[in-house]
Amino acid sequence: MSAPFSIAVTGQSLIRHDLRTIGDPRLAEIAEILKASDVAFTNLETTIYGRHGGWPLKGSYFGAAAPDVLAALKELGFNSLALANNHAFDLGPPGILSTLEEVAAHNFLHAGIGHNKHHASTAQKMTFGSRNVALIAMDAGPGPSFMYAEDATEGRIARPGINSLKVSRVFDLEAGTFNLLRSIQERLLSSPLERANYAQPEDPPDLHGQDEIDFYGTVFRRSDETARRIVMDRHSARAHLSAIAEEAGRDTLVIVYLHHHHWEPNWQQVPVWVREFAHDCVNAGAGLFVSHGAPVLQGVEIYRNTPIFYGLGNFLFHTEKDEQEWSPPEVWRSVIATCNFGSSGQLENVRLRPIVIGGTEALSNPARDRLPFPVLADGRMAADILDDLADRSAGFGTVLDREKNVGQIAF
Fold this sequence. Notes:
It comes from Rhizobium chutanense. Pfam families: PGA_cap. The chain is α/β, with parallel strands linked by helices. It is built from ten helices and 23 strands. Among the domains are: 108-147 and 161-166, no CATH class; 168-231, no CATH class. Helix content is 27%, strand content 28%. Strands 1, 3, 4, 5, 19, 20, 21, 22 and 23 form a nine-stranded mixed sheet that branches.
């Protein structure tokens, strides 16, 4: 038997500004919720510009922050960070090294990047109260292969980078469309050498027989239907599942984190492959599964008494004002989820506090400047956020009760 235990999880923290000078009581309310839990977890959606330097390796979506933001997250109450995401390599290997150095200096439990593949994929552990907690964090892209950590081999030195869950994107086409695409490729005199040249610095994708073609970096497959698929690499998935099982066998609560940008056309819809992988992680021993990537709230599932948060959207979202792609209201609405475990270690309930990132005034009036922090939602706004989450979760068999401004999933 152990003491009751709680984990607060939030949306991703794309943070560029130090919040410690803000004396707003609404931010203090958020911090109070986070500090009330034994573990407070978020995804650090940036890379740290520290003593190792670095240079931008991305275009308009580049993001980096000073080490001060880590102190700000610590002061808010966070003590655990996932580091695997599409911004972690924005400064290249130097940014990876600086981020590792700074999060360690601030005593965060952290995982998802490393000096090499072995380091990046290794579960990182810390004791909170009476519970041993392990964190395994990974990113499924899409992104260039050079942003992922690599072990040294003969002729290649190790590369600092991100822990990868390897997946590939395949488009299935009915025979007529597939044959048309192949004929276009032939008329353009496209050759394997040409495609290899244009794939640089990547290697061209692997093909499996005559029913697949590489059309300038995208694989199309002859099929009975037209569909877009994300296919997990079995070896990569098995390696992560083995790491989960190893830690779970040590009486450790394992938090598994997945970041990805393989969104559905409706970006609040949970991809089938993510749900399958989340179930596999729980079957392997994960005590909590959290995912980010799409900057919107997605459904919650309780599978084998284990909470699965398919997408918690945003918590801090310091974007540029001219980035209109983030203007939909669902981008700015989320929840803080607190998972409460009893003395037996079993999940007892999940409490959900709805929040508005940037403040309710800016949500209703785009001309208003957004606050650099989230605020608790109340009244009609709180009800709308919770009711929408309940609807999105119902398909997974999740029953979400709402009492005033708080939601709860009880057992």
